[in-house]
Design a protein that fits this description.
The complex is a heterodimer of chains A (about 200) and B (about 325). Chain A is α+β, with helices and mostly antiparallel strands and about 200 residues long. Chain A is built from seven helices and five strands; from the N terminus they run E-E-H-E-E-E-H-H-H-H-H-H. Chain A has two domains: about 80 residues, Ubiquitin-like (UB roll) (Roll), CATH 3.10.20.30; about 100 residues, Orthogonal Bundle (DNA polymerase, domain 1). The chains are: A alpha+beta (about 200), B alpha+beta (about 325).
Chain lengths: ~200, ~325
């Protein structure tokens, strides 16, 4: 059979990203991640594995966290997307972003946008009473313990292994007392000095 | 990813007709299909997007609980009725994948997941499932994660779903609409088929068939329900072996017994012979051993996965002991 390349019909897709409406005219193969980064210049969302294994590309669609690498942009026509840029900006950080800074919740920072978006949406899931696999009782609402946070965040890998700081940042953003953390005092001194 | 034409279905009947055309594939959550398209394991000419169809509802019905095919794994796991009456299903769903993936993955798509066999996913390897007749590199290969029950000389892949294992223990029924608009119900037990010499055929679905819902029968009153999963990581890993159990004990003896297993076979595994051995008997270590013997009577290890046989014995005993002490 002749393998003549078929012309690819572009698809017009409307996405509302962080409250602003955007039109994307793209090959249907374009993932939501590539639409954000390559077509719209929103580079906050990161490409790690591109197979839904690392979570670096996490965004919210209509308030729910998903892997934007495993979503076709054209399938999200009309949807509301929130990326890390929509959570906060330098000088006006969201409580979760601020907590990641204060608790040293990153090292190289590549996974951080995904971690922050995922954690923000995860707190919303917990507030709605969603259980997790480590919840003892599915009938009652669950407190976000360290173990609960680790389970609920297992879709976000950190190759630098900044997990203790990430968990403490999430505990803090949830209004809980973080666990004892090495270096936290130094981070706070540095932050105070910078102000 | 190979180029494809994108179509958005606006009516259930249209979706089936579009998907019946050779080379077309239905897409819903896409968490498995897009992954495989990136690897060029799947190369559809046309994607039929069914996510705008009206199949998102969960509802109590006369004889049980009906789950629309597009209900996400997250919403199903978090549903208060499911958590109360079908705990094994909620637990199984929560044991699978990640928060992000469960928000996308759908009930229908979960049933149609492809195997996680490394050789199926590697287009340089021989695989009868991906390329019928090419051979199977898994049988002599690194087969640690693969099946010990229901295999053939052509394929030893496992079905990766957790959800389907729980649904198997719950006697679920799959609602299917054909391209001509007619509906039929298929017991989940009959939905997936063994590989035999046609491992590329995984279900009884025909071209143009669309899963519209899964129905669970009324809950088993007072049942002990659990989903036990052994895996290589504490979270976000497929089952090496999993056990879904729905059990009642009456007058010190097993009464209702439903056991289904993941990670052992090419389909969510349920063997009524195990349940026959247990029903009406008093729990004991010897009885648990007898149940394991029945489960593994025709089991066969392929080298790297030999450990699954003793592990399955321990897991079935552990689950039955928990049920008897509940």
């Amino acid at each position: 059979m002749a393998n003549s390349p078929r012309p690819i019909a572009m698809i017009e897709t409307t996405l509302t990203i962080n409250g602003t409406r955007h039109e994307v005219n793209a090959d249907p193969r374009t993932t939501l991640l590539d639409a954000l980064r390559h077509h719209l210049g929103l580079h906050g969302t990161k490409k790690g594995c591109d197979h839904g294994q690392c979570g670096a590309c996490t965004v919210m669609v209509d308030g729910e966290r998903i892997n934007s690498c495993l979503a076709l942009a054209c399938m999200h026509d009309g949807d509301e997307i929130t990326t890390v840029e929509g959570l906060g900006q330098p000088g006006n950080l969201s409580p979760m972003q601020d907590a990641f800074v204060r608790h040293d919740g990153y090292q190289c920072g590549y996974c951080t946008p995904g971690q922050v978006v995922s954690a923000t949406a995860m707190l919303g899931e917990a507030k709605r009473g969603w259980p997790s696999f480590v919840s003892d009782d599915l009938d009652t609402d669950v407190a976000l313990t360290t173990q609960e946070i680790s389970e609920r965040m297992s879709g976000n890998l950190c190759r630098c292994s900044a997990y203790p700081g990430i968990v403490n940042a999430i505990l803090d953003a949830d209004g809980q007392q973080p666990e004892g953390e090495a270096g936290a005092e130094i981070v706070n001194l540095v932050l105070e000095g910078a102000q | 990813m190979k180029p494809f034409t994108y179509e958005r279905a606006t009516a259930v009947a249209d979706a089936g007709r579009s998907a019946a055309i050779p080379g077309a594939a239905i897409i819903a959550g896409g968490t498995n299909l897009l992954d495989l398209m990136k690897l060029q394991v799947e190369t559809p000419d046309t994607l039929v997007d069914v996510t705008r169809l009206d199949m998102h509802a969960m509802e109590a019905v006369d004889d049980g609980f009906r789950i629309g095919a597009l209900v996400t794994n997250s919403n199903l796991a978090a549903d208060r009725t499911v958590r109360r009456d079908y705990e094994v299903l909620s637990r199984a769903l929560l044991s699978g994948a990640t928060g992000q993936l469960r928000n996308k993955a759908t009930t229908g798509g979960n049933l149609l997941q492809r195997t996680r066999c490394n050789y199926f996913q590697d287009t340089n390897a021989r695989c009868n499932k991906r390329e019928p007749g090419s051979g199977c590199d898994a049988i002599e290969g690194l087969n640690r994660i693969l099946a010990v029950l229901g295999t053939s000389d052509h394929c030893i892949a496992t079905h990766p779903s957790d959800m389907a294992v729980a649904m198997q223990a719950l006697d679920a029924t799959v609602e299917v609409m054909a391209a001509d608009g007619s509906s039929r119900n298929v017991a989940l037990q009959d939905f997936h088929v063994l590989p035999g010499d046609t491992p590329h055929i995984e279900t009884v679905l025909e071209a143009g068939d669309l899963i519209t819902a899964v129905t669970l029968p009324k809950p088993v009153d007072g049942s002990f329900q659990t989903y036990r999963k052994a895996r290589d990581r504490a979270s976000y890993a497929f089952a090496l072996i999993s056990v879904a159990a729905v059990i009642t004990i009456k007058d010190g003896r097993f009464d209702h017994v439903a056991l289904a297993f993941g990670g052992l076979g090419p389909k969510p595994w349920r063997d009524p012979a195990i349940e026959d051995v247990l029903r009406g008997e008093e729990p004991s270590t010897a009885l648990f051993g007898k149940a394991a013997d029945v489960l593994l009577a025709d089991a066969r290890g392929y080298g790297h996965n030999d450990f699954k046989l003793p592990l399955a014995c321990r897991m079935i005993a552990s689950v039955l002991r928990d049920a008897s002490e509940s």
